[in-house]
Design goal:
The chain is an alpha+beta fold. 48% of the residues lie in helices and 12% in strands. The protein has 26 helices and 18 strands. β5 and β6 form a beta hairpin. The chain is extended and about 135 Å long.
């Protein structure tokens, strides 16, 4: 055998080996790895569900849930790649506005319960003859990608997105089970829904429309169940105690359920440091001096900040001396028109300005005398004022004639004629007025003013034809000169210095902007230092875990650390995930997901959510934020206690109390029924209420509807905030009774029995019929669930569970 042939043979052997190694790495190894992670020496693997002889262990369900989540992430990436290559969504869907992937063709909310149902339904589907082979699944994937992504690219993307935890076999198996379960459920659900919407009769559609659009107003009185507990037997039989305990020992307590629950939830205690951004702003603001604020104000002014719009008028701050001066000189606040009149009368001479002395124009105003005013002086002043007003009117009339000659009388040319300037020579100046101590007659003054107006009109006409005349230029200059107090001309206004908001008006805004960045830096620095201390302790504690030879690390005093760093220290607990809702920190979410739709709440982070969110270990510091309140929390869990089922002797008093509550409900309902009967017989509801229970009587509650829209296709029961946790039975009693009829209904938890008297129901059904005829108005009612359909679905599950011998277990400690 020659060397070349030997080389080729060795090359083929090597290629075959590589192929086998790749198959092992991408097909066999992930399955083995998952099996090794899900089992091991000393580990228990409890059964969580059974059906038809098949046992679903906790590890199998957890692995399926984890792979379900990974498959969803892979399909989202595959959909994005398809869109990027110009593909058209067929199996997956896209939001037309945000262009985000909405659905990927399979259920998008992995959970332990859904995994169990998927495994159950896929098995039943195969028993009914529904089959999906690998070729069908690959065809589904080709349709998913519009044929734009090759099989090789798909599996390369799968390995990358799942970090080599899933191969082709796992993907095909997951899609087969998801699609089979989906087909089985849709086939069984065809009788109660179509196209995602419940199948409704016309009457059901109308009823749902009324539930959304009619609103009720009521008077109601609440009969409290706790008021009747003392009237029940405090020593129930042992048989009843045992029966109630067995019924509730595996049920968690629920404030909205009338059924007793005795199972204990997992609980934990916490310490946290709170950093409020506003407190850091206040701290930084105290460091600023008046000089720094003023300097920043001037710097921003130079940059164009704080400029006032031209139409804004600043009201000056008037101190007491200025106010007194203003009171002594009322003439300074005259309107602009009066100032203009006075200015015109004192500065507007006859046509030749030098011909009339100022004394002749205003003798009364320039004459100084120490003698007291007389009736003659008053008459003289009044006469002068009349002359000024007359001249003002004539001047305005002359200006109007110049602006619109067609409106003039004898002085303007007829339409079609050309206005010519006067041919009569105009005297160069008026004859000087003779000095006299006698006041001219009123009609003479009026005639003089009229003559001035005529001359002004002539001069304006000359200006329209002889723009180069010096006399016209002088006249226009005199006319365009603004009177004192009228403001600057347009040219000067254009170059007027800008006006700025005073420092006093913008000081708070300025300081807030100055401290914003330093406050955030100081807050982050304080949190970083505290986080470093807490992380160091967590790491040292982890190193010492189980090592009895090493001395445990000293736990830091967070309270002292908070005082040093300007943070707030809190210690809370023990809390369950339910009781934690009353703490402000429960409004915070994981900092890394705060700006996404998948923000993880604080309670879920601490207590976990199955395989999706692993609960936090003791003393690991985590950061959560409440963006709306500008709060940042740095928290660790200090103690925890697993959930458990208590023994009967531990909770005997609690069980006895539950039995007595059931008996008290019967007595409370009897009392409420008695009151309602008396009201319907003609008595007043208010008169039947005991004096010490008036606080439980509410009038004119509402208006409220049976259901409210909570989103597209989502509905929530109407809420009456003044009452305690009302439920469906309360709403049914309100909206199915007649006005002024007294009816009885409990709240959802059956803690209160309400005597209800409806006052009105608006709008009336007759008014809503016209609205119901419009398709756009009634479409939302089509999406409301039908109670009968809900019962059918529940019956479907019950029937399947009975036929398959389905049992759902909750192992101890889970």
């Amino acid at each position: 055998m020659n060397p070349l042939e030997l080389f080729r043979r060795n090359q083929k052997v090597m290629m075959t080996g590589l192929i086998l190694l790749a198959m092992f790495a991408f097909v066999v190894l992930p399955a083995v790895s998952q099996y090794m992670r899900s089992s091991g020496p000393g580990m228990t693997d409890p059964v969580v569900a059974e059906f038809e002889g098949i046992s679903l262990t906790s590890s199998r369900v957890a692995t399926f849930t984890r792979n379900h989540y990974a498959t969803i992430q892979f399909l989202r990436k595959l959909a994005q790649l398809t869109l990027a290559r110009g593909g058209t969504p067929t199996i997956f869907s896209v939001d037309p506005q945000s262009q985000q992937i909405q659905s990927v063709g399979i259920e998008q909310s992995p959970s332990e319960d859904f995994s169990i149902r998927t495994l159950q339904f896929s098995s039943l589907a195969q028993e009914k003859g529904l089959e999906l082979d690998d070729t069908s699944i690959r065809s589904w994937l080709d349709q998913f990608t519009s044929g734009l992504v090759t099989e090789r690219e798909r599996y390369a993307l799968l390995r990358r997105e799942t970090n080599n935890q899933m191969g082709e076999y796992q993907l095909l198996d997951m899609l087969r089970k998801q699609l089979l379960a989906q087909l089985y459920f849709q086939a069984a659900n065809a009788s109660v829904s179509a196209g995602g919407m419940p199948i409704l009769s016309p009457l059901d559609h109308w009823t749902n429309f009324l539930k959304l659009n009619q609103q009720a107003t009521i008077n109601t009185y609440g009969v409290l169940v706790n008021d009747f507990i003392e009237k029940t037997d405090e020593n129930p039989s042992e048989t009843d105690i045992q029966a109630v305990y067995e019924a509730g020992k595996d049920v968690f307590p629920n404030d909205l359920s009338p059924e007793p629950g005795f199972r204990r939830r997992e609980s934990a205690s916490f310490e946290y440091l709170l950093a409020e951004l506003q407190s850091f702003r206040d701290s930084e603001a105290k460091k600023l001096t008046d000089e720094e604020i003023a300097a920043e104000y001037e710097r921003r002014k130079a940059g164009g900040a704080f400029v006032l719009p031209p139409d804004v008028i600043l009201e000056p701050t008037v101190d007491e001396p200025a106010a007194e001066n203003a009171a002594e000189a009322p003439m300074e606040s005259k309107p602009a028109t009066e100032e203009a009149s006075e200015s015109t009368s004192t500065t507007e001479p006859a046509t030749p300005p030098a011909a009339e002395p100022a004394a002749a124009t205003e003798p009364a105003m320039t004459e100084e005398t120490d003698e007291p005013a007389t009736e003659e002086n008053d008459a003289e002043l009044e006469q002068r004022m009349n002359q000024i007003e007359s001249f003002q009117k004539e001047l305005q009339s002359a200006e109007k004639l110049d602006a619109d000659p067609a409106q003039s009388g004898e002085e303007t040319a007829e339409p079609g004629e050309t206005a010519e300037p006067s041919t009569e020579p105009e005297p160069a100046s008026d004859p000087p007025a003779e000095e006299s101590t006698e006041e001219p007659a009123e009609e003479d003054q009026s005639q003089n003013a009229s003559d001035r107006a005529v001359r002004l009109v002539a001069m304006q006409a000359d200006a329209s034809t002889e723009s180069t005349s010096e006399e016209t230029t002088a006249t226009e200059s005199a006319e365009n000169t603004p009177a004192e107090g009228d403001g600057a001309p347009a040219e000067e206004a254009a170059t007027e210095e800008p006006r700025y908001q005073p420092l006093e008006d913008v000081r708070e805004q300025l300081v807030e902007s100055m401290v914003e960045e330093p406050a955030r830096i100081a807050r982050d620095a304080a949190l970083a230092k505290a986080r470093g201390v807490m992380k160091k302790y967590f790491n040292e504690r982890a190193l010492n875990d189980g090592d009895t030879t090493r001395e445990p690390p000293a736990r830091p005093n967070l309270e002292s650390l908070a005082a040093e760093l300007g943070l707030t220290y809190r210690k809370i607990g023990p809390h369950t995930i339910v009781s934690l809702r009353n703490e402000p920190i429960n409004d915070s979410v994981d900092e890394s997901t705060a700006l996404t739709r998948q923000a993880i709440p604080f309670g879920i982070m601490m207590f976990g959510l199955g395989e999706q969110v692993i609960k936090q270990p003791l003393f690991r510091p985590i950061d959560t934020v409440d963006l709306g309140a500008e709060r940042h929390y740095l928290t660790w869990k200090t103690e925890e206690k697993e959930g458990f089922v208590p023994e009967l002797e531990e909770i005997r008093d609690e069980v006895v109390q539950a039995i007595r509550v059931v008996e008290a409900r019967k007595l409370a309902q009897q009392e409420a029924d008695s009151i309602a009967k008396q009201v319907n017989d003609g008595k007043s509801l208010e008169e039947l209420i005991p004096e010490d229970r008036k606080d439980n009587y509410y009038t004119e509650l509402g208006p409220f509807s049976w259901y409210n829209m909570a989103g597209f296709g989502q509905f929530a029961l109407g809420n009456v905030r003044e009452l305690d946790s009302i439920g469906p039975r309360f709403m049914e009693a309100v909206f199915t009774s007649e006005d002024d009829e007294a009816v009885v209904a409990p709240n959802q938890a059956e803690r209160v029995y309400y005597v209800i008297r409806r006052q009105n129901l608006l709008p009336a059904s007759s008014d809503l019929r016209a609205i119901f005829k419009q398709p756009g108005q009634r479409i939302m009612a089509m999406f409301m669930p039908n109670p009968e359909a809900t019962e059918i679905q529940r019956g479907f599950y019950d029937t399947i569970d009975e036929e398959t011998g389905f049992n759902r277990y909750q192992p101890e400690g889970f």
